[in-house]
Amino acid sequence: MDVTYLLDSLNSAQREAVSAAPGNLLILAGAGSGKTRVLTHRIAWLNAVENISPFGVLAVTFTNKAASEMRGRLEHMLDRPLGPMWVGTFHGLSHRMLRAHWQEAKLPQAFQILDADDQLRLVKRLVRGLNLDESVYPPRQVVWFINARKDEGVRSAHLDTPRDDVQVQYQRIYTAYEAACERAGVVDFAELLLRSLELLRDNAPVRNHYQRRFSHLLVDEFQDTNEIQYAWLRTLAGPQCSVFAVGDDDQSIYGWRGARVENMHNFREDFANVEVVRLEQNYRSTGTILQAANALIDHNSGRLGKNLWTDAGDGEPISFYTAFDERDEARFVVERVQHWVEQGGRRDECAVLYRSNAQSRVLEEAMIAASVPYRVYGGMRFFERAEIKDAIAYLRLVCNRDDDVSFERVVNQPTRGIGDRSVAQLREVARERGVSLWQAVPLVSGRAGVALNKFVSLVEQLSASCGDQPLADQIESVVDASGLLAHYQKDQSEKGLARVENLEELVGAARVFSPDSDAIEALSPLEMFLAQAALDAGDAQGESWEDCAQLMTLHSAKGLEFPLVFMVGMEEGLFPHQRTLEDPSQLEEERRIAYVGITRARQKLYMCQAENRRLHGRELFTVCSRFVGELPTELVDEIRPQVQLSRPVYQHPERATPSFLQEQTPYTIGQRVHHNTFGEGVVTDCEGQGKNLRMQVNFESEGQKWLVLAYANLSPLS
């Protein structure tokens, strides 16, 4: 078989990675270096050259969309279906494993998956049921606590001895939460991975089976793995297994949700004879953009190290705009977007990146005022919309009557006279008897009992009406007979019409739903559809849109690329964020976020700072971000220089102070000073000369202020 086509389109480093002999490999894939191409070609190479059966390959990605695209590319490259191959997310693969071994995992065969919203609703119910104050024990914080413990592999029974009363109650809620999930036969996303890890760790026959089966594990976005995902991979990889890990430690920006960049460093210690291959040729950005990114990230310590380059030429310099305030910054961005369109570009080729969601408001106002269509990337996703979640809850009750979360969601949706007091009474009975809400309904008397029994009858009728109908017809029947469709049709506003269209789209999704070829035969098509819906709800995929400018946080921009990119709010305390300034590790992650932002740009990059910014209800007099100061001067073209200063760069106290300031005043940047009204502070910036010389001082009690030196009456402090 001629396999030269697998290497012909690759550069030398990519060929080295794809054609390496079986063994453990760490692929340091820089931004825009073709890591997805390398990963898919590696799998094809293993199959076509090393004669590795698809049955023996497991590939992990971070989104279901990426997994689907990978499988499609592979089947196209090899011109045959790859049914036995396991390709999916950590959660998707764990779910598949638990479906196959539900008995060994101590789960009911038809267990359901709680998404994030359902999990929150369950925790709220438990907090109320334990008579705890939600202001002291916020349900969202409790959810974070539970998920964080599960990501660490810690059950409620294994928690350390609580240090205080708050920790005692958190442990109590966690214990009640586990019991409620066990009783209802449901698992959350964190539980999928933890239960799967426990299955592999504690059940030798299951572990040995998968270690013998999978001779090759391939992992994408390795820098984003957390503690339990890494443990899952290590447990799954048998002594004869080859692990192909692809990642970029310079793009590890999710530490706040548990990602551990240390996993990339530990990989070479935890796995034997690891070969490292660096993908450094970039196919996305200009040479100038890459030089800037390299210079910036080089300020981080402990990197595995690589240097991005391109043969596509240097391109334009980076443009730095110093705005007067946030409105001037937004105006500048809108004008540049309009100019781009006038020159023949599209609005959707333009991305505005910011560190904080709060920054979008002024940008949106400017877009609206200038009639520039825009989109805030990462909005509400299909399976997270209220009307879809309502329909899914009915369908889940049809499959599993003991699903308390779904029961509570739709017991009075549409309204049927079952108020909070009735539900609270039902909860109390269920808690006392140790049964599900469904099982407790016959035990409730009076008007509440009558209304609840009518709801039970409705669900039974829905179940009976489904019968042996095709999946789409089942869903259409439930949506109609439950009253949801009529309920939303009453609202003739655009929002109401959109909700109706979404319910119709749910039926359409069922019509094209194709269960996995290896799906467990014991599951009905509806159960498989609901499981897939819950998994898809965990994906952070955007939707197609009209031609419009893209607004998004820097975190949301990871994995995307645009010809024209704006990085706004390049100011100390905003980016890098104020809370990271005293923590070296957090500051390095902020720098990696900046690196990700820079490498999103293909042709042109703008950076913007506002001298004055009103944010969170406060007016701030800003200092330019250190990240701008860390870029080579020759790569940056300043559009509106501050008066008499070549660049408004961040000044470290130990760096040189402008000579004119040294000549005219006794002050240096970093000098402590005293003001009769504002108290003590530190000089952080300066501009102008002579009588117009101004200094920016960060006062301990009053914040940052610009002062004209001739009138400020400042006194230097030692």
Textual characterization of the structure:
The protein is α/β, with parallel strands linked by helices and 718 residues long. It folds into 5 domains: 5-102 and 193-281, Rossmann fold; 112-184, Orthogonal Bundle (Arc Repressor Mutant, subunit A); 318-379 and 544-614 and 623-634, Rossmann fold; 382-537, PCRA, domain 4 (Orthogonal Bundle); 659-716, Thrombin, subunit H. Helices cover 44% and strands 15% of the residues. It contains 28 helices and 22 strands. The chain has a 7-stranded parallel beta sheet with strand order 11-12-10-13-14-9-17. α4 links the parallel β2 and β3. α13 runs antiparallel to α25 (584-598). The longest helix is centred in the middle third of the chain and has 21 residues, at 446-466. The termini are far apart. Mean pLDDT is 87; it is low at 641-661.
Described by the principal axes of the CA atoms, the overall outline is: globular
Strand order of the largest sheet: 11-12-10-13-14-9-17
Integer count of domains: 5
CATH superfamily of the largest domain: P-loop containing nucleotide triphosphate hydrolases
Q: What is the class of the largest domain in the CATH system? A: Alpha Beta
Q: What's the N-to-C terminus distance?
A: 78 Å
| Percent range of helical residues | 40-55%
From the alpha carbons, calculate the radius of gyration and give it in angstroms.
29 Å
* Beta-strand percent range: 5-15%
Q: Which structural class is indicated by helix and strand composition?
A: alpha/beta
Q: What is the CATH topology descriptor of the largest domain? A: Rossmann fold
Largest sheet: 7 strands, parallel
